[in-house]
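= Paired protein data =
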Amino acid sequence: MGSLFSPKMPSLPPVQPLPPAPSTELSQEEKDRIAKEQRDAERRRRGRRSTILTSPLGIQEEAETEKKTLLGGD
């Protein structure tokens, strides 16, 4: 009874062949541009590392735990 009221499925269209893949060959200008971008990124990364004052283990110094009192006494 289900086939009586359900519409027929249309036939599938034919499969189209894939277009040829684009060339992966880079020109010398593109290679130079990519190399310059990588050098710039490495320089920025080195610059940021020089501003970090702690190691991955954290601060190795002993913390200063003495508190100064309002009247300057010990």
User: Anything to note?
Assistant: Residues 49 and 55 are 11 Å apart (CA to CA).
